[in-house]
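lol forgot to send this yesterday, sorry. struct tokens for the thing we talked abt
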């Protein structure tokens, strides 16, 4: 077990006098149960109940009176009640829709109890089979480990302050680039990170990745609504990893025989499971951010380590001297998109990229990031500033003067002028500093 950034958010939730029962959401095996077990150390009483067990389900489903239920939970968990705060963790809550409905009564009638709920298949059952009490619960999203969490797990915490301060000698810069490449190869699945931290051996991770992929494939019948959807989801889970970071078409995706409607439904189901995201473009450089869902999306998976293993590209990390050169630049874009996702614990945060709406224009900016009422363009590129043609075109249409280039070079800020003579600030951000992006933007 190692420290995760979400723990600070959980502390804020626990200390909020207006808190509601918390539904912790995230893909299977991203560490939801482990996080709650670790967080429980801050409480005098901890009740952990798994609704995969029939006796636990019967306990909840026998009543709607949560005040009467609480003593039974202490008895069931064999916990002697102490003075102080109580945390109740309801795991695999999707197995009991009745228990989901009880969350509102914990909020209304037993608000002094801290309640967290989670479930490995909860995401795929929401809306269709389970409805969470509107306005009576709150949500928090857990993603795979970020680079900062990877440093914590592997005993490299000494780099955290230099990263935040953005003042690094060349030797430290090169070391952090190497560490980030290692993180990009391993990915952020907690089991893979923990195993690597313990053994410092890439080869032992194959079993971890293989086990995770098989678990997701075995869940297909639980995700899918019919046999056709089972087949399409299985195809995506077998072949779709190789298309990470690419703009895709839904019809006949990856050379398959499946129609756009069938593929779209399968992708939406996997999105609900938080295994991937179809990232759609913006066509405006100004707020509001409106995705153009008539245009082709980019495919980003939730974890780079699984992409590297399933797409069989790990050798490229060893032979490439620069992350920008790995897998034709797609590896860099995947890990940047993944790191951006970890900047928020809000559920439903979407990523976007930008394309120029004018006919005949091929301008495209890799990703965009909303900040302080602005759409900040992000290019994952190396080389001289004049090569950032699409970024310049975005800035000509934008109402602000800040752009981001993520690269393997050192942190710096350049003053750049477009062909239309607009001056803007280009923040050159090393890969290992993506976690500092909000703080850096706040200073501008």
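and heres what i got for the seq, position by position
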């Amino acid at each position: 077990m190692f420290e995760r950034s979400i723990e600070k958010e959980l502390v804020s939730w626990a200390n909020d006098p207006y808190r509601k029962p918390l539904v912790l959401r995230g893909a299977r095996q991203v560490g939801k149960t482990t996080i709650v077990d670790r967080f429980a150390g801050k409480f005098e009483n901890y009740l952990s109940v798994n609704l995969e067990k029939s006796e636990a389900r019967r306990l909840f489903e026998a009543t709607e009176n949560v005040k009467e239920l609480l003593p039974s939970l202490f008895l069931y968990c064999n916990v002697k009640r102490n003075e102080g705060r109580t945390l109740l963790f309801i795991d695999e809550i999707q197995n009991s829709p009745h228990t989901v409905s009880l969350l509102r009564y914990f909020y209304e009638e037993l608000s002094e109890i801290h309640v967290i709920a989670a479930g490995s298949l909860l995401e795929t059952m929401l809306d269709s089979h389970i409805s969470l009490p509107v306005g009576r619960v709150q949500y928090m999203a857990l993603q795979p480990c970020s680079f900062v969490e990877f440093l914590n797990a592997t005993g490299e915490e000494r780099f955290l302050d230099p990263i935040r301060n953005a003042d690094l000698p060349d030797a430290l810069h090169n070391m952090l680039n190497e560490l980030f490449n290692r993180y990009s190869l391993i990915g952020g699945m907690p089991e893979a990170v923990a195993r690597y931290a313990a053994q410092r051996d890439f080869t032992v991770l194959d079993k971890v990745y293989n086990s995770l992929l098989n678990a997701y494939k075995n869940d297909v019948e639980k995700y899918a609504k019919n046999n056709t959807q089972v087949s399409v989801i299985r195809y995506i889970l077998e072949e779709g990893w190789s298309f990470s970071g690419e703009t895709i078409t839904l019809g006949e995706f990856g050379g398959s025989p499946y129609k756009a409607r069938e593929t779209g439904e399968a992708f939406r189901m996997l999105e609900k499971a938080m295994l991937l995201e179809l990232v759609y473009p913006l066509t405006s450089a100004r707020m509001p951010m409106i995705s153009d869902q008539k245009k082709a999306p980019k495919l980003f998976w939730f974890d780079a380590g699984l992409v590297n293993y399933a797409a069989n590209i790990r050798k490229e990390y060893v032979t490439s001297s620069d992350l920008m050169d790995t897998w034709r630049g797609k590896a860099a874009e995947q890990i940047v998109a993944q790191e951006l996702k970890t900047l928020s614990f809000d559920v439903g945060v979407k990523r976007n990229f930008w394309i120029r709406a004018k006919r005949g224009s091929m301008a495209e900016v890799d990703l965009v990031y909303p900040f302080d009422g602005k759409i900040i363009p992000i290019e994952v590129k190396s080389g001289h500033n004049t090569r950032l043609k699409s970024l310049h075109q975005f800035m000509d249409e934008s109402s602000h003067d800040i752009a981001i280039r993520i690269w393997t070079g050192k942190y710096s800020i350049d003053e750049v002028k477009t062909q239309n003579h607009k001056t803007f600030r280009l923040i050159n951000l090393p890969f290992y500093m993506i976690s500092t992006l909000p703080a850096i933007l706040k200073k501008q």
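The first strand starts at residue 22 and ends at 25. anyway ping me if u want another try
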